[in-house]
């Protein structure tokens, strides 16, 4: 995982930025920036990395991130193939905390928005009714011209989100961004290697050598940066891939276990339950009810 780079968004005259993204794949760089970010995936699949959270993403994925929270929507490998005709699409909104002035959020009426922004520092995702309603609002926002009406539309959307209850936190309560922009890119090398080889047996010695460190030093380094052990990281990547295969419904659980890098079905079932809180069959049932 490349050390998260501080991403400077281009200056604009408006109080916030709305973009419709249409690219062969989403930005593959692990990065962070001082803006709040509301992001909706319209088209594309892959794995979403936010802070210490690793989850699969698909169309309808909706998250709200606070400032300087490292993130990456890593499109599936098929999107990077030169002959691919696949496309990713999304709508993203960027704004600074003071996008309507230094004192705006300090007003009594803005208490719900202050709470929403504080929660966003851990990252938030919505499901169900709120996600569907927000998807419609974001699509409309992207079509509006910059002006007073668009500001009102954004505030209305944020107000709706501040009162919604069907949200989940993305990062763990103790997560903090310890990455410095001037650090080396060893984490990106590790990140890319794991994503390319997680179905195989991964050797700690090989990974540590790739990072230019001894195995014990690498384990300490990784735990500090990722807020989890390297083995936990690999397990979450594998289970995230298994979740996508389960949703696809083309393979049985034994095949999915092997395709995701697990050599025994019992170990797959145990780790799946530990990470998702559900059995594989229970996960599929829950997904189909959404």
Automatic annotation (TrEMBL):
Residues 188-286 form the HTH araC/xylS-type domain. Signal peptide: none annotated. InterPro entries: Cupin_2, Homeodomain-like_sf, HTH_AraC, HTH_AraC-typ_CS, RmlC-like_jellyroll, RmlC_Cupin_sf. The keyword DNA-binding applies. PROSITE patterns: HTH_ARAC_FAMILY_1 (PS00041), HTH_ARAC_FAMILY_2 (PS01124). The keyword Transmembrane does not apply. It comes from the Bacteria. One of its GO terms (molecular function) is sequence-specific DNA binding. Keywords: DNA-binding, Transcription, Transcription regulation. This is AraC family transcriptional regulator. It comes from Spirosoma validum.
